[in-house]
Amino acid sequence: MMALMLLAAASAGCVRVEGDRILAREMARAWPAFSRVAPDIPLGYAPAPGARRIFSLAELARLAARHGVAPPPEAPVCFERPMTALRRERVLEAMRAALELPEARIDIVELSRYPVPEGELVFARSGLRAPGRGAPPGTPVLWRGSVLYGGGRRFAVWARVVVTAPLRRVRAAQALPAGRVIEAGQLRVVEEEGFPISGREAAGIEDVAGLRPRRTIPSGAAIPLALLERPPQVERGDRVRVKVLGPVRLEFMARAESDGAQGQIVTVRNPKSRRTFQARVAGRGEVEVKAGGTS
What we know:
By secondary structure, this protein is mostly beta strands. The protein is 14% helix and 35% strand.
């Protein structure tokens, strides 16, 4: 019998609740006698989105006794959060606000279909997954978002999208061998459509020229920034100028026994004594050592 009564209450419709608690003023919509109670008194937790909170007859009777109101209604009272369908227009608006790229094109391929609570729809840039390396243009990617509701709670939503925008990219005009410094003449700049916010590929020749790739980059390929490194200013086998820092200025030539960039420590061999010592790279072909550090 109780199950039938609950089902009847649900089918009759539920009272909409907005916050995290069911308040007296919301109970009064189904139970007018409760309008005598202070409107902001909490009566229980609100249901999760998509769920319902049903006050049984026994619970209503206890509320009547506690708050001194007329006997409860003859059927349970149901509460639920207002839910709505996720509309493409609303999703696009939130995505465009997050990208802040008026020239970007966003095509929604698939969208989460379940209803969502009423609230602010957010698709942050951090929730947009970049295409995998080597993925062809137009590959859909996942963009996770959320609806903010009930005082800061989040309800997860998602979409599969194709995001493109006009881009300026640097591509290899010829194969770029691993470990060899890249020259400007080995590069070309192209204007093309692509994923706009990965930040993983060079956009200007100045971002690439003078660096060297950790592995060979084939002709025509874009230049991944993560693949580039600054060449050492001192390389093993180089003749380097050693500056001894101390009361008396002293300089001499030596041989580098290891690689190092600006500020790094390298091993240097004294050509006369054949003994090695540690020195700090000061520039191209130059190292410094404090007095007493040489052999």
